[in-house]
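Dear colleague,

Following up on Tuesday's group meeting, I ran the structure prediction for the three-component complex that the binding team flagged. I've pasted the input sequences exactly as they went in, so you can double-check that nothing got truncated or mislabelled along the way. The structure tokens for the whole assembly follow below. Feel free to forward this to whoever is handling the docking comparison.

Inputs:
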Amino acid sequence: MPLLLLNILFAAVFTLLLGSGSIGTFVSGFALGYLILWLSSPLYPEIGYFKKLPKTINLAAYFFWELVISTLQVAWDVITPRHISRPGIIGVPLAARTDLEIFLVANLLSLTPGTLSVDLSEDKKILYVHVMFLEDIDKTREGIKNGLERRILEVMRS
Amino acid sequence: MTGGTVFLYGASQVSMAILLAGMFLLLWRLSKGPTAADRVVAMDLLSVLVVTFLVILSIHTRETSYLDVAIAYACIAFLGTIALARFIQKGSRNKQPRPDLCQKSDTPSENLPDKRSSHD
Amino acid sequence: MIEYFTGVLMVLGSLFCLVAALGVIRLPDTLTRMHAVTKAGSLGAGLVVLAHAFFHQQTGIFLRAGFIIALLLFTAPVAAHLIARASYRSGIPLSGRTWVDELKKQH
């Protein structure tokens, strides 16, 4: 985490020194700072930061792609006169343990294809998910665990 | 006036008309909604549409301060939705064990005679 | 050039919003309606705000637009989760097409 703060500080100083104050300058300053920190990474004890950022970008890209796909799916069911949805509520056993991890899984799940988190069991181990196009219970459950939850846990725990 | 400006002017008018149509549909659901939860859902989407409308208005009139109004409206609408959701849950707490919800799926419904056969 | 891009993005976003509103009208029960609201609604609003940010291209506008998108993407699932849980516990009827309900055993 201190490396992230250092990187943001570098980008802010870079932006102020160039004096243009646009977002593009800030982003390029951040990228330059990241490169410099990466080159000097043998100097620091923590290396998690350099594994974390590519995984975060991977998660964000996956998430936006899924958001677009899910919207098209729902839109298709809304526009066409015949309903094709086969809704159902399934329980997904969670590998996420801390409150922050569960929060992220539940919220990102609500925004991805045809799934909506409805309830959490008392012991915080099972998340109940409402699925709009449910064909195969086990396959859907595996898809949630391997697709979204695995990526979130990779980001949180690396 | 260049072609791009004219195009943008027309496009913002078209999208405002689309959003207004959506808002009227939502008002219908808001007045008709069978349960309180349906009304809260309609209210929630209505506030998202109002935020979107404000942003388009900001492009249409080139007045960027509408964006601040949109931010404030989004915050307040979120708080309102949370309060209404708490209200629904509180209202149900006094009731006895919830009725069997899925009983309708055991009996054949009018548009889906057989649960299994519709997909094949 | 940027005007055409902005206009197309804006109309696309408002069409997504219209689809969300149509979904609230047409889908059979509260939980499926909530699917339309969280996904189509937030994507449509996000596209329109993005169009606004590209149109003005100033740092302040970029930051405010980013804030609105973050606000919408964070609040929509939280609100949807709260409404879904509250409505499920208050015993709303599910549509006849629902064929699995594993949550029912919990209560």
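Chain A has two domains: 2-43, 48-157.

Cheers,
M.
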